[in-house]
Write a structure and sequence with these properties.
The chain is of the alpha+beta class and 426 residues long. Helix content is 47%, strand content 8%. The chain is built from 15 helices and 10 strands.
Amino acid sequence: MTNQPHPPTPLTEAPELFTWEFATDPYPAYAWLRDHAPVRRTRLPSGVEAWLVTRYADAKQALADSRLSKNPAHHDEPAHAKGKTGIPGERKAELMTHLLNIDPPDHTRLRRLVSKAFTPRRVAEFAPRVQELTDQLIDRFAAEGSADLIHDFAFPLPIYAICDLLGVPREDQDDFRDWAGMMIRHQGGPRGGVARSVKKMRGYLADLIHRKREALPATPDPGEDLISGLIRASDHGEHLTENEAAAMAFILLFAGFETTVNLIGNGTYALLTHPEQRARLQTSLAARETDLLETGVEELLRYDGPVELATWRFATEPLSLGGQDIAAGDPVLVVLAAADRDPERFADPEVLDLSRRDNQHLGYGHGIHYCLGAPLARLEGQTALATLLTRLPDLRLAVDPGELRWRGGLIMRGLRTLPVEFTPVG
């Protein structure tokens, strides 16, 4: 294949992690870790020490190991450090009881309540709305000949989609966009801005849940929104507290938008920097074929996925992983980005191949915590990329790739901006 990158230059000594240089291209550092220290205790920028797991086999084992709890109560750090291992502000806002922080049996109960919103049938029914949102967003900048695809497209699309799914009224959705924008900027916003946005979102959700409970009809409508469905389940003996309902709505919004922002942004960037693969996809789309689009999105998830590290896990008892002894209470972070380029699992892992078939990537996790919203994210990713490449066929980067900057933060991997140019479309 042409237009493919050469394998990264092997590093000869332990790499420095979590610098801005590392954020631009973490893959050589992850290759070194896989080869020399596949399960390595590391001090994170927050000061917390955690085990980083970088090989595919170890990662898959860790993601499904019931001895690795999602509950931060198992962390052995002092109480003041516990807030460093989750979403800023969620503890003070009483939003801890969500799927990313709990284990069975509570996890099983809560996941069952929300899983109906993400069935293949429900997602298929939502497809026309995703297409409508996609076209509306492109309409706003198509005549300009340029855009920032993060700010103008990749960011608002999943926000409006998840708000519709949750049942947030259209007139309130721009508030959600503002709060989510603060959350996604991390270090780029004012100090404490993320926690304040989380608190505002918590207050709004509590009020919305109350209003929806008061107005809930006796029987559900066929297209009932998710928050109403959660309320209805709690009113029929499932024992979903108001805090649980608010936390669940919050995490579906939080986990459901930034991952898709990054899928669209990272995926578009990968296609623009791999012109042969992009041309293959455009040819396939012009022939109204969907096979390459479907395998292509899976490959983009593997090659430079939206979630760099899986969310926190804590050992509930001593265990061994990748030949390392892990003590009870130790945090464990599975590096999905490293596992998904493990040459022991993937042939030519540094090559972007949109037609790759043997592609059991870990981009959406594995085991009981496999991403509940993966079908919706795939729909949004496929719709966004197909529509962009079809409506703006000569889409191209407006800056040198070296000028692009990646957002800070431990878990997610995404671009701050993605300036593009194209022939204006009237």
